[in-house]
Specification:
Blueprint (H helix, E strand, L loop, with lengths): L1 H13 L4 E2 H8 L4 H13 L4 E2 L4 E3 L7 E9 L2 E6 L6 E4 L11 E10 L2 E11 L4 E7 L6 E4 L7 E2 L12 E9 L6 E11 L3 H11 L8 H11 L5 H4 L3 E3 L5 E4 L8 E7 L3 E9 L1 H4 L5 H9 L3 E2 L4 E2 L4 H7 L7 E12 L4 E12 L2 E4 H8 L5 H7 L3 H20 L10 E5 L5 E6 L4 H24 L5 E3 L5 H13 L5 H4 L6 H11 L5 H11 L4 E3 L23 H14 L4 H42 L6 E9 L3 E5 L5 E5 L8 E3 L4 E4 L5 E3 L3 E10 L4 E6 L10
Parallel strand pairs: 14-21, 15-22
Antiparallel strand pairs: 1-3, 2-3, 4-5, 4-7, 5-6, 7-8, 9-10, 9-12, 10-11, 12-13, 16-17, 17-20, 18-19, 20-21, 23-24, 25-26, 27-28, 27-33, 28-29, 30-31, 31-32, 33-34
Helix pairs in contact: 1-3, 4-19, 5-9, 12-13, 14-17, 16-17, 18-19
């Protein structure tokens, strides 16, 4: 029987078109017809062949499946995002197969309906946590959770004896499927506090994004032991001694994890740049508890009121921090450049430094703009020649970068001021001064040199890559830019797009009301930068070679490549480097990319809550903003302080607006337009801290305004 089944399958695989069962008997020259039909029936039951009503045999159609992640749940349906890109896929609630938000699933029976792609969940390949956060609601007489995540309906809460949590509290809930239904119910497992506090909401955001906020005891024990270590003669063997060099750190006033220092001097051919990075890999050993925890965290996470560090403070603020006046172990990139900013040569050396000045961005900016007083000039006297050379070199590098086509995006970061109770009392755009831009250029150069070295040596490595944007996104950008009246000829040309083509659009928009909006749209068009073991280049920076070398205290990829480069400096052979670090580099790239996304999502969510908390103190006040986005339902308006809110189209009285599907709402009665980049007067109507939602109305609208 098994031999006959094997013969049937082999024939069907070699001649995959359908054949009648009688024809198959003849082809195989089977004498025992009963035995043949028993074999055929078994193959049919096993799903290895199919037999039609007219007795034609064929191989079953290959069922196409797509790996995707559930990104939103609504009453009656969900959406999943394919891992390989493309449109989000609609899934009816009856076809979810118990999948929940965040689950990685295999989608089957893919088809295209009138509204787009649809499918059903075949299997759940990776289950996400069933714990979610949200705000407890008790207005309807029963307890419900208003989820923080992309769950578009309220979840009933099981009322139990001794249940903690009151109306308006931010809570964590464990959800479970209600038997014989597609719905869920929840059980409160943690109460954070009142949801109108951004600080409380940030606590919940940390948990909801799965960000580790407490170090295990064994990690803290290792950190304390490392903090007690003194630099020994053994540590200094083979290191480049730079303790007499006029090196300084430059960072924000409140920074305590100082992981990079610089020295720059002029040479006959141009410049000698020294970028000296904390030698974290010397202290964080492979296989240690600290290393495992740093790998798990991937990156430090920054909120308005706290930092969740990748490394314990004993390392990040202590033994690894390049504090002025202290001998510190470092990993130095020594780079020679010509007068046009071209890299002539570079070397990487383990070193020891003693920073002469703890520089602060605001102070260095005052030196540069000649507003520094005598005390400040005295403080920086030991390194002023180096700073002036660094400033000169950075300007050359910036001009070179622009000529290469680097996109200078006008992306706004926000700066939050909190009072003694942790309440946000001010929001303003974070401005980058000349000193910040100088350090950025020097760090980019060091990162570029490290990536060049790795590619040339063909060693396992973790590169920072930024790929070409997808054609679909570029087409959307072209439509928007065309609608704004700018020239998109360069984006439409055939062949590969260059970074300079996008820079051309930014140059056209410079100084116009559309500048910030165009910048935002280009940012949305770009692929997401990530980590990879292949040197795919960095499109946004217009560089063939790039990595992250300069911040090992707060980013694991930097620590990872320090470890690999350290082995290279120790003359470890290529074959041995591959054996030791190929799998490690792959794991670090994947995990660090995921950790970065997790951190960015958490940081943005927390910023929304702090902005909403600030705006609750300004309900009813009028502002002039710029329309930053237009949708079917309304417009988004960004204020000069960087806060963005939503204006429902229904709040425009005596108007009949119609969306053009792109960037404009047009009043069919008057012809008035609401379009991206246009200024508009608004009033603050409402702000909800728990969700981070801020609502505006037109300044002259007669509507009820509430802080609820």
């Amino acid at each position: 029987m098994e031999e006959l089944k094997s013969r049937i399958l082999k024939y069907m695989q070699q001649s995959p078109q359908s054949i009648s069962s009688r024809g198959l008997i003849k082809k195989l020259k089977v004498k025992d017809h009963k035995e043949f039909y028993r074999a055929l029936n078994e193959l049919k039951q096993e799903g290895k062949v199919s037999v039609s009503k007219d007795h034609r045999v064929r191989l079953p159609k290959r069922k196409e499946t797509v790996k995707a992640k559930i990104i939103s749940l609504s009453k009656g349906f969900a959406f999943a995002r394919p891992e390989n890109g493309g449109e989000d896929v609609f899934i009816h609630a009856d076809r979810l197969n118990s999948a929940f938000l965040g689950d990685t699933v295999e989608l089957k029976n893919l088809r295209r309906d009138e509204k787009g792609p649809a499918a059903e969940v075949g299997t759940i390949s990776e289950q996400a946590s069933r714990r979610i956060t949200g705000t407890l609601n008790h207005e309807s007489g029963s307890y419900e959770l208003i989820p923080d995540d992309a769950i578009r309906y309220h979840i009933p809460i099981e009322k139990r004896k001794g249940m903690k949590g009151r109306h308006g509290d931010k809570v964590q809930v464990e959800v479970s499927r209600v038997p014989h239904t597609s719905g869920y119910s929840g059980r409160i497992v943690k109460v954070y506090g009142k949801s109108e506090s951004a600080k409380i909401c940030a606590d919940a955001i940390i948990d909801q994004n799965g960000i580790p906020s407490h170090f295990p005891d064994e990690v803290l024990t290792e950190a304390r032991e490392i903090a007690l270590q003194k630099i020994t003669e053994e540590d200094l063997k083979g290191r480049l001694d730079l303790r007499d060099t006029n090196i300084c750190t430059i960072d924000g006033e409140d920074a305590k994890d100082l992981d990079d220092a610089i020295s720059v001097s002029r040479t006959r051919n141009g410049y000698k740049l020294g970028v000296h990075i904390a030698d974290v890999s010397h202290y964080v050993k492979e296989g240690s508890a600290i290393d495992a925890e740093a790998f798990r965290r991937g990156t430090s996470v920054y909120f308005a009121d706290r930092v969740i560090p990748m490394l314990p403070q004993e390392l990040s603020n202590g033994v690894c921090s390049l504090n002025a006046g202290e001998d510190k172990l470092t990993f130095s990139a020594i780079i020679h450049l010509d007068k046009q900013g071209n890299i002539l040569s570079y070397q990487f050396r383990k070193s020891v430094i003693n920073s002469k000045v703890r520089g602060v961005y605001s102070e260095v900016n005052r030196l540069f703009n000649k507003t520094a007083d005598a005390a400040l000039k005295k403080k920086y006297a030991p390194v002023i020649r180096s700073l002036n050379a660094a400033r000169e070199l950075a300007n050359i590098l910036k001009k070179r970068s622009i000529s290469n086509g680097t996109i200078d995006l006008d992306s706004t970061e926000s700066r939050f001021t909190l009072n003694e109770d942790g309440i946000c009392v001010n929001v303003e755009p974070r401005h980058s001064g000349e000193a910040e831009q100088m350090i950025e250029q020097l760090m980019i150069t060091a990162n570029q040199a490290a990536a060049k070295l790795a590619r040339e040596k063909e060693i396992p490595f973790v590169y920072r890559v930024h790929e070409l944007p997808s054609p679909e996104r570029v087409e959307t950008l072209i439509q928007i830019v065309d609608a704004l009246g700018l020239n998109t000829k360069r984006l439409k040309h055939k062949g590969d797009l260059s970074t300079a083509d996008f820079a051309d659009i930014m140059n056209q928009a410079a100084g116009t009301p559309a500048q910030k909006v165009i910048s935002h749209q280009i940012l949305r068009t770009m692929a997401k930068a990530r980590y990879d073991t292949n040197p795919l280049g960095h499109f946004g920076l217009a560089l063939a070679d790039y990595c992250h070398f300069t911040s090992p205290i707060r980013r694991y990829p930097d620590t990872a490549i320090h470890r690999i480069l350290s082995a290279l400096l120790q003359k470890v052979g290529k074959e041995e480097l591959n054996r030791r670090y190929l799998a490690f580099a792959n794991g670090a790239a994947t995990q660090s990319s995921q950790a970065e996304i997790r951190a960015m999502q958490a940081e943005r969510s927390a910023e929304d809550c702090y902005m909403a908390e600030y705006m609750t103190q300004h309900i009813g006040e009028a502002y002039t903003g710029v329309i930053s986005g237009v949708t079917q339902r309304g417009i988004f308006v960004e204020l000069p302080n960087s806060v963005e809110g939503f204006v429902p189209i229904a709040s425009f009285e005596n108007a009949d607006y119609q969306f053009d599907g792109l960037i404009t709402q047009v009043d069919r009665r008057t012809g008035n337009k609401l379009t991206i980049g246009q200024t508009i007067d608004i009033r603050v109507a409402a702000a909800d801290v728990a969700s981070g939602r801020i609502d505006f109305v037109p300044a002259d609208a007669e509507v009820e305004i509430s802080a609820d």
